[in-house]
UniProtKB/TrEMBL annotation:
Residues 1-28 form the signal peptide. The chain crosses the membrane at residues 184-205, 217-236. The lineage of its organism: Eukaryota, Metazoa, Chordata, Craniata, Vertebrata. This is Arylsulfatase F. Its cofactor is Ca(2+).
Length: 586
């Protein structure tokens, strides 16, 4: 009996320590204050003036405003570029896009180039710390580089464990009128015709060779020629972009080609909620990269006509609705206090997007200029909200300069990781500033690029309220007298399309946030000092730039048929694997 009870005690001890082990493993894996969950939300082309919490009184954005009320609002949050791809590159890597060579002068689709594989993203940093990582939504950092499905630049190669969304970007052809469905039906029939013709031609050839039929060769040849012609006609009639660029992928599989843009938002949200549910027990990082509010602003029927600002306003309100869904999901899973949420826009609204006479691009509030305009404030001054209940003050506004590049080192700090030591990181960990441990941002200078060209720089001196902004190059607006590049649709970064300023233009944003009246030596006693100090800073910055291969040179960007993603048999790339997904209407 002794030995039995002894054995019993041992087995109880073993099972207890086993339980303790299991418990401690579970504890270690749950998101905690040491390893909070991270949800980064990025809007596409949203203007800072479009949100209630940044002063808009006609567009309703209650969910985004709630984030601002419950967290910190950054009032001088600056993107590293005023175009999608380079701005996102800088956001992902914490480095000016010129350092990785992703400096697109025009928003092309980045084929076959992409974010260099030796760049480290915040997802890779978090993953190394045991986080589950996902990208849901827009990627736009490249896809294929050698053949149709090599997926060399897929998010999986940059630290993301899961991907659902658009490898490219929305653009106008992605949301054609509903007649597309008929067009799709016709193209499907054409594909069947081609298949039938090909099978018949093959049968006839085989029959002729086996002497079963007596069909003249020229008939067979004609048939083959006709089939080939049909393929060519099909391909060339669908170079519209809708078929080749407007696609959705889940992991590495194309799920919709062409995509049904107005329902993409609902599916993305379902994917996000399901990711949160799958990973609620372990720390995760979700980069939720909205397709909203980029043109053509695909909007669900139940949001059409709900705003006072046409389709664009409806689309902003729909985006806010989805932000609400995401916040609700986080609350419902009990993750609220262990989740840091960030909201921003990749850059300012595009002033040139119009549908007839109606504005279809964002509103940049009091700031001058917009998307694609290098240094003007409207293109780079974006919303920045951070919420972490109990850890970050609620309702605080921080006016110090911050950058989208700061998210990279901030994620490293939050996850317990480190930033790479073998390269320059331009971002700064935001936590000390957000939590009030320091009063001043580390960003004394920020540089504003247009493609590879440095157009402007800002200086926030540590000991003064002034925010100096020096412009060396500005785009030439057209037609004359306009405040944007309406004729070319997008401003140029160099050459004929810009004006070089020597002496440079100087503004003090603290007194003149709209950059309306340049200061001169006569109106500003510090003029010479500021121009000299900023010029020195620019020179010092330039010394840190190591030339790398540019990812978006013209020769890399040509249309390459063999790189086009295809769901089906080329050129008949058509599929819809989502079936009938009913949307998450309000
Ligand atoms: C609100 O946003 C709309 C749409 O972008 C814009 O037209 C309007 O001027 C904005 N209102 C304010 C007060 O900023
Ligand atoms: C979350 O944090 C807030 C603020 O510190 C606190 O009041 C609340 O009780 C916390 N909720 C939970 C479920 O821990
Ligand atoms: C990545 O590789 C390129 C090409 O070899 C090189 O020029 C660049 O410096 C590398 N970048 C980093 C961050 O190591
Ligand atoms: C899709 O499903 C919804 C509800 O489940 C239904 O009302 C609708 O008719 C379906 N649409 C199609 C095209 O099958």
């Amino acid at each position: 009996p002794q030995s039995i009870s002894g054995r019993g005690r041992v087995s109880r001890l073993v099972s207890l320590s086993w339980m303790w082990f299991l418990l401690s493993v579970c504890q270690a894996q749950r998101a905690t204050d040491d390893k909070p969950n991270i949800v980064l939300i990025m809007a596409d082309d949203l203007g800072i003036g479009d949100l209630g919490c940044y002063g808009n009184d006609t567009i309703r954005t209650p969910n985004i405003d709630r984030l601002a009320a419950e967290g910190v609002k950054l009032s001088q949050h600056i993107s590293a570029a005023s175009l999608c791809t380079p701005s996102r590159t800088a956001f992902l890597t914490g480095r000016y896009p010129i350092r990785s060579g992703v400096c697109v002068p025009t928003p092309r689709l980045l084929v076959p180039a992409g974010l260099p594989l030796n760049e480290t993203t915040f997802a890779a940093v978090a993953k190394k710390q045991g986080y589950s990582t996902a990208l849901i939504g827009k990627w736009h950092q490249g896809l294929n580089s050698r053949y149709r499905s090599d997926h060399n630049h897929h998010p999986y190669n940059y630290g993301f464990d899961y991907f659902y969304g658009m490898p490219f970007s929305l653009f106008t052809p992605c949301w054609p009128d509903p007649s597309r469905d008929t067009e799709l039906a016709i193209s499907c029939r054409l594909w069947i015709c081609v298949q039938l013709l090909a099978v018949t031609a093959l049968t006839l050839t085989f029959g002729k060779l086996s002497c079963w039929f007596r069909v003249p060769w020229f008939v067979i040849l004609l048939m083959i020629l006709f089939t080939f012609l049909l393929c060519c006609v099909w391909y060339y009639s669908y170079t519209s972009g809708l078929y080749w660029d407007c696609i959705l992928m889940r992991e590495e599989e194309i799920t919709e080609q062409p995509m049904k843009a107005e329902r993409a938002g609902s599916i993305m949200m379902k994917e996000a909620v399901s990711f949160l549910e799958r990973h609620r027990e372990e720390p995760f990082l979700l980069f939720y990269s909205f397709l909203h509010v980029h043109v053509p602003c695909p909007t669900m029927e139940n949001f059409i006509g709900t705003s006072k600002h046409g389709l664009y306003g409806d689309n902003v309100q729909e985006m806010d609705f989805f932000v609400g869904k995401l916040l609700d999901a986080i609350d419902n899973l009990g993750l609220r206090n262990h989740t840091v949420i960030y909201f921003t826009s990749d850059h300012g609204g595009q002033l040139e997007s119009r549908l007839g006479h109606v504005q279809l691009g964002g509103w940049n509030g009091i700031y001058k200029g917009g998307k694609g305009m290098g240094g003007w404030e409207g293109g780079i001054h974006v919303p920045g909200l951070l919420r972490w209940p109990g850890k970050l003050p609620a309702g605080k506004v921080i006016e110090e300069p911050t950058s989208l590049m700061d998210i990279f080192p901030t994620v490293a700090a939050l996850t317990g990781g480190t930033v790479p030591q073998d390269r320059v990181i331009d971002g700064q960990n935001l936590m000390p500033l957000l939590q009030g441990a320091v009063q001043h941002s580390e960003h004394e200078f920020l540089f504003h690029y247009c493609g590879v060209y440095l157009h402007a720089a800002r200086w926030n001196p540590k000991d003064s309220q002034a925010v100096w902004k020096v412009h060396y190059v500005t785009p030439v607006f057209q037609p004359p007298g306009a405040q944007a590049c309406y004729e070319t649709k997008l401003c140029e970064c160099s050459g004929e399309g810009v004006r070089y300023h020597d002496p440079p233009l100087l503004f003090d944003l603290s007194r003149d946030p709209s950059e309306s009246t340049p200061l001169t030596g006569d109106t500003e006693p510090l003029y010479e000092l500021v121009i000299k100090t900023v010029a020195d800073a620019v020179q010092a910055h330039r010394k840190t730039i190591i030339p790398v291969q540019l990812q978006l040179g013209k020769e890399l960007n040509e249309d390459r048929v063999w790189l086009k993603p295809c769901c089906g048999v080329f050129p008949f790339c058509l599929c819809d694997k989502e079936g009938n997904t009913s949307n998450l209407g309000p």
